[in-house]
Every structure is written in structure tokens, then in C-alpha cells.
Sequence to fold (154 residues):
Amino acid sequence: MQSTEEKFLQFQLEGEELALLPAAIAPEIRLVAAEEILPVPHLPDWVLGIYQWRDEMLWLIDLSYLLGYAPLSWEGKHYAIVVEIETRSLGLVVPRVHGIEEYDWQQLHDPSDELFSPELMPFLQGFFLKNGQEILKLLIAKGIFLACSQKLIE
Fold:
């Protein structure tokens, strides 16, 4: 019997809101301070700017703000989850990373307009229930890349 479980990176959005991304596409997490980010004018507010990473420039975005939550407050440092899809990388900045957890794909619930905001829905693959009540949103990394690419190229 083939396993339907996969490892996911669990992290915090705004407040107590938790989200997941497949761990396989997030090879690195970095602590980033606001002064390490070079702001780029005339872009959406959720684009924080560019950051020096492995001899290249990495776009950093405020993931919570992109998804319709309040923007990050820059007291101290935040976590940049480096997500790689194909040959492209993007830094998703979040207030906290909780670690790696395993979930069964068969336990994934479909997203619902009644539970989630319209801003979040295009980026939401579904959700898992932790301990029967805590909602863990599974995000669509390709959707985040697409939304960011369109705004950064315009």
C-alpha cells in the first residue's frame, strides 16, 4: 500500500493563523531583519524588496499581507522561507516557523468560501484539521509564484 503522507513546513501567518507548504519545495529558512532588505519603489505593498541570497537577489514578500491579512510589523527579525519551483526562488516572509509535520493527503479538506476570505481562496489548496479543531491552511506555492511574477514583471 502506497503512503499518502507528506512532510509539510508549518508556519504562522497573522495572529494564530497557521499555514503549510510542502517541505520539499522549501529548502531553506533564513532570519531576516528589515535593514537587510532593499526596498523597490512602485510595487505592491506586500513586496518587501530584494535580499542578497547565495550570490543572487531574492525577492521577499510579506506572505500574510499578500493573502489578505494585516502586514507584518518589523520589530526584530522575521523568517524568510525560501521556496523553489523549477528554477525560480522566492522568499516568503512570515513571523514564525513552527517546523516540519507530516499529514495524510487523504485528510485534506476542500477550501470553502464560508470559511476563508476571497483574498485567500486563490492561494488555498485545502486545509487539514489538527487535533480535530485547529485549521492548517495548505497553500498553493505555484499560485503565489504566479501572483508575484505578474506584479514584479508589470
